[in-house]
Amino acid sequence: MQTNTYNKNRAPNAPQLNRTHRKTTSSKWLAPAGLVMLSIIPLIFGVLRLIELSVGAEITPANARFFASPAPVVVHIVGAALFAVLGAFQFVNSFRQRHPGWHRVAGRFLVVCGLLVGLSGLWMTLFYPRAQGTGDLLYVMRLSFGSAMVVSIVLSFTAIRQGNVVGHRAWMMRGYAIGLGAGTQVLTVMVGSLILGTPGELVGDLLLGAGWGINLAIAEWAIRRRRAPRARAAVAIQ
Length: 238
Known about the structure:
By secondary structure, the protein is mainly α. The chain has one domain. It is 86% helix and 0% strand. It has eleven helices and no strands. The protein is globular, with a radius of gyration of 22 Å. About 3% of the residues have low confidence.
């Protein structure tokens, strides 16, 4: 009788546990899916730019700088695509734990991609003619955020070489946030244009800068959120 009662009490819970497990598993993939979605529009424009360069499209004032020196923009687009898509999967803890070898190999590859993105972005800022409608503020922000991305990735790589996993993750999250700025900029410019109308030079620069700022703010929030339980545990032990 006890065995039957035990089975009856337990059987109804099994489907519920399965549903809970599926929900938990699916929720872990929401963040990388959202990051990939955020990258889609910049990736589409990047692919169109590569097609434009490969087929020899008509040269206009807007694209003349790319045709004059195509290598940096090609490196930037390809590197950014790989960095954004592959990097999104590095944020799934269960995936990292199940495939540690993949995580290490992909991580090294992403370091190279991230550095190529940041350095090519800096090169284009310094040596390409400025795009029409952009001002000194955007020029300074591109140099600042591009340099910050390169530094973040270097510090992330240095941290993991020293065995500092927490520091490695924090700096890579910052570098990834900056690298994903183009996706958020699509949203900030779109929302700003809907509210303010066609933006002028200063407003346009600020809307683009907001994309990087928002991403970094979210990254810092996520970093501090991950550190809080560890800090509380350390205090409790003391």
